[in-house]
Amino acid sequence: MMKAVVLVGGLGTRLRPITFEIPKPLIPVKKRPILNHTIAWLRRHGISEVALLASRAHAEDFRRWERAWADELDGVKITTFFEEKPRGTLGGLPLVRAWMGSGPVVISNGDDLKDFDVQRMLAHHRRLGGLATVALFRVPDARPYGVPVLDGDRVVDFLEKPDVPPSDYVNGGLYVFDPVIFDGLDYTKNELMIERDLLPMLAKRGQLFAFRDAEARCYDCGTLERWEKAMREW
After folding, report:
1. What integer pLDDT is reported at residue 16 of this predicted model?
2. What class is the 3-233 domain?
């Protein structure tokens, strides 16, 4: 049975003052929280166990959300883990490590909207035999994003916000990881990021592959302008 971890602990600083009152994954698009869209998307692709990694400061918000939307969330077993303080997209994963088990696990940012074939990505991950696969989304302008350097399907490097991107595919905050890669990492730092601390390391080791889907959609709702675009187009 496939599992997914959804990262919902971000501060949403670019959406303040809205995010002073509500966590970014719970802001609405089409009158439903972004997180509802994420759960529904994962369920459509056969994932029925989801862990949320949230901030302790937002514990009551997420408990209230789960009660309010219980009918819509039916069919997905949700387990919420709370970080005492935010430690980045990678720093909090030890809390969820035992829950992951040993098989491949999907990890997704929880503050954007995705339409992506997860099952095709999982099949691609298993076929290539790597430890990690990153989903790449095509964008009109890759300069504001992390852009991979590819050798076929293998990621050999990551460029952060390059002036001249090597392609129009960017990291979309969606991964398949064999959980063993989280064992033995140094979690003593105050902040660790998948994008900055894990992916470049895996790329240098030849253990990171990419899955591209030109038809996939991803809406980053991290600013008022992008949130409005998602509301108009999703």
Report:
1. 80
2. alpha beta
